[in-house]
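Annotated sample (chain length 146).
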Amino acid sequence: MSMNFRCLLLGGILLWAVGGPTTANAANHDEPATGRQPVPAVNAAGKQAPEDVPNKTELSARQRRRVVTAAFYVLGGILFVGVLLIALTVLWGSRTRRVARKPLPEASPDDPLWYLRPDKKITASEVGPPEEAGEPDPEHDNGETT
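Output written by the structure step:
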């Protein structure tokens, strides 16, 4: 599996575990989750009534269970990817060690004085026919015109 597919799979599992894109305040499942907070009741003094003030630190049992489940999925995913990376490192290291231990193929020794050899003479058959640009070839020009 490719790394992108694993990331998408882990994200899908996390969304499934958390319950999808819903808000924490949408207790009634008939109403669509809009992401907006309900307007609290305000008394005559302009303050919220104490019974209507939501306690943001308390979570319901279902929400706590979802958070714990999501945390375990994330922890499991991190452990899985970590073990996978360690295994790949071990396999890659053993392969590299095997390649490094293999002897190199025999190479023919080059002439250590190659720079002292005379240049090869280029023959006419290697170069090809002279270009016909209207100028006579100086090597084959004997003064005659055809």
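Annotation: The CA atoms of residues 22 and 28 lie 11 Å apart.
Annotation: Helices lie at 3-18, 61-101, 124-127.
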